[in-house]
Amino acid sequence: MLKAVKVRIDPTIEQQSHLAQAFGCVRWVWNQSLAAMSQTYKETGKGVSALTMKKQIPVWKTEYEWLKECYSQCLQSSVLNLSGAFINFFDGRAAYPTFKKRQGRQSMQYPQNVKILSHSEIKFPGNLGVVKAKIHRDCVGTLRTVTVSKMPDGRYYASLLMDDGMENPVINEDGKAIGIDLGLLDFAVTSDGSKYQNPRHLKKHERNLKRKQR
Predict the structure, then answer these.
(1) pLDDT at 151
(2) Residue-wise pLDDT tens digits, 45-90
(3) What is the phi/psi pair of residue 44, to 5°?
(4) Which helix (H) or strand (E) holds 8?
(5) Taking all residues of the chain, what is their mean pLDDT, rounded to a whole number?
(6) Residue pLDDT, tens place only, 82-108
(7) What does the DSSP assignment read for the chain?
(8) Taking the domains of the chain in order of start, what are their residue ranges?
């Protein structure tokens, strides 16, 4: 079973600069991916898989050198989280994904290679390094992902997703597990054969890309 533990972190001035740049890179990849997925469906009637969008990241890096300064797995997580947002939308658990703004809460996810050194230090991969933290409880289990966020008031947090090893299956009302494919003719097709057409939000959101971009 997964459980998130939210802790306060205190990055140095230099680390805050690294985070600001990384937040911008992750936001840019999210917005570009969202625009591409929406536009492709509008023009071809087909969706774009997370794998396809992940393959686009190296291409973007050749065009925009500043993307190379961000830890690559954080960029990949942005694409995967966007795919998850679409799944939640089609499953009725969330609204249609929107473009991210520079203002407000900023966040990015480290999918692996983060280590909890002590109750006062967390080690991140890439150029961020060891960050001071205030961990007031024991983190039981295996650390799966870490989401770093900056709030509008300037405070920084890390959400530690822990796995205690116990199974937590996800089922539908009929007791059957369902998978979702975003890369078929219909925008989404579940493994039980259900199809989801154009969610009718594409034009509204694609107009916001330039205004919401980095």
Answers:
(1) 97
(2) 776 788 889 999 999 999 999 999 999 999 999 999 998 888 788 7
(3) -120, -15
(4) strand 2-10
(5) 84
(6) 988 887 887 889 888 899 999 999 999
(7) -EEEEEEEEE--HHHHHHHHHHHHHHHHHHHHHHHHHHHHHHHHS----HHHHHHHHHHHHHH-GGGGGS-HHHHHHHHHHHHHHHHHHHTTSSPPP-PPPSSS-EEEEE-S--EEEETTEEEETTTTEEEEEE--S---SEEEEEEEEE-TTS-EEEEEEEE-S-------TTS----EESSSSSSEEETTS-EE---S-HHHHHTTHHHH--
(8) 2-198
What does the pLDDT look like over 143-182, one tens digit per residue?
999 999 999 999 999 999 999 887 765 555 555 555 555 5
CA separation for the pair 86, 34 (Å, rounded) = 10
| pTM recorded for the entire structure | 0.75
